[in-house]
């Protein structure tokens, strides 16, 4: 018996050795990879709550609003904030949280963020886009990490810190936090309806702080205006024919003439930017987003020997608030889609007014230049969707002053400096935010997201935000909230 054991002992030793090797080769790298994939954060920390919020899939076309609203309301309840949930459009809640000030007669502050996010292409992400994966270097990957779920949680965490670390602090002015739906699709069922509600009017808002963008440098960026977005769709009709023929008035020829004219305008605007005479947000941008033409041939092709009778192209058009909308409409009608190519216009109002369709169409067909509310301009050949106003209720460009004439600006700037930060030159936002709906009411509004030394990744694959940048933003908002809610008088805005 002893001899048999002695005989097999080398074999046992070899087996143990191979087992150890297998563990080293397979198990340990897998564990290391798991550690590299995500650094866990407890759920009861600011970063943990940020990650929980990011894990709600609020991407269009089917955003989950109920889950995050319930989650945010639970945080608000733990901070003893007043909570209102408004359903101004079916299935699209707006969450309103309030920290009441000691003097409710003073105009209040509204800090806004949106619940929704743009769609994702999961296969093109390094991590699942709603996993909120945190890498070893602190980057948190998720759709909405920068745009703009970060600021919503930062607002709440700043209030938490003020309540816990400064128990004797009491705001003079009331502070309200709004979490609105549908910003990414125009805001018509979100902020547009909220500002028309009795609940909003009861807030007596004097100043709005909304989303901004990241800064790749050391200075914080701040935005005093948005560009207004129009969606332009040109549809061309023409005679069909054999693909070998060359003839006038084909659909593709009519469309391409418009595309060429629009491209020349785009180049002229871009040349101004390249020459350093203006920033990207200070010119009119027009970018092609799709082209659709051809006769489908199943399963995935097109008929190659026939010219189609219809063709279509879509463009994203963004205009600074100083743009004259009437002149822009004339340019589209006379140059981009002229009557010589059968490009005519009829106007149908997007459903923000409550008139009969016949009355509205009749009115708008002769007066569409006067209107500043979001609208559809539609015909068989051209469609324009105006997704926001360019002027306020007094006919002024939607611009918030960033000088001493605006006392809110002075207090905001001082708060940033008190937080150890510095503002870059105020900018016009190249894209669009919900702030335009309040500017239209004459309410001063600034766009601001406290992210420095951060690549701009909103709407991109692998959108992410570093944990240290997120935490630094909470500190900045603490200073902003203390300064703005303690501001006693506003002589004029």
Automatic annotation (TrEMBL):
GO terms for molecular function: aminoacylase activity; metal ion binding. Its cofactor is Zn(2+). Residues 232-339 form the Peptidase M20 dimerisation domain. Zn(2+) 2 binds at residues 147, 184, 459. Zn(2+) 1 binds at residues 114, 147, 211. Keywords: Metal-binding, Signal, Zinc. The keyword Zinc-finger does not apply. This is Peptidase M20 dimerisation domain-containing protein. It comes from Turnera subulata.
